[in-house]
Amino acid sequence: MFLSVHSTIGLIIGKYSANPILAFFVGLISHYCCDIIPHGDTKLPKRFNNLVHWSLAGIIDLTIVFINVVLLIYLRKINIYNLNFGAAFLGSVLPDFLLLAYFLTDKKFFIRPFKFHEKIHNLISKKYEFNFYVGLGLQLAAFVILNLIFFYLC
Length: 154
Fold this sequence. Notes:
- It contains 6 helices and no strands.
- It has one domain (3-153).
- It has 154 residues and is mainly alpha-helical.
- The radius of gyration is 16 Å and the shape is globular.
- Helix 1 (3-16) runs antiparallel to helix 4, helix 1 (3-16) runs parallel beside helix 6 (132-153) and helix 2 (20-36) packs across helix 5 (111-125).
C-alpha cells in the first residue's frame, strides 16, 4: 500500500489511542494487516518496474504524506505535541522504511524484516492479485475514504 494510506491510518489510530506505546504497536500491526490485502503492486507493468519509476513513486507518495499530515493538523487543529499521533504514525510507516533500508544498505541486517514483509504481502496476493491499475484505484479510494473518516469523525 501507499505510505499515504498507511500514514492516514496511523493518524486515526493515534487519535483514539490511550498511550503512545500502544499507538505505535497498533500502527505497526495495522501496516501489516493492510499489506495482506492485495493492492496491485505485484502486477506492476514491466515498463514501470525500474529504479527511476520506483524513486519517482516514492517521492510523490512522501510528498502526499507530508501535505496530507500538514493539512489534517492545520484543518483539524490537532495538538502536534500529542505523542500518540507520532507513535502511531511511526508504527504505521516503519515497515516500509525498513524495506527501503534493506534495499539501500547491508542486506544481512535487514533480512528478517524484509522476509516477514514479503511473506505478509504474499499471503493473499500470491494466489489472487488485482492488476496494477485496479490496485492503484483501490488505494486512491482508500486514501480518500480514510481522510474523510479522519476529517469528519476524528
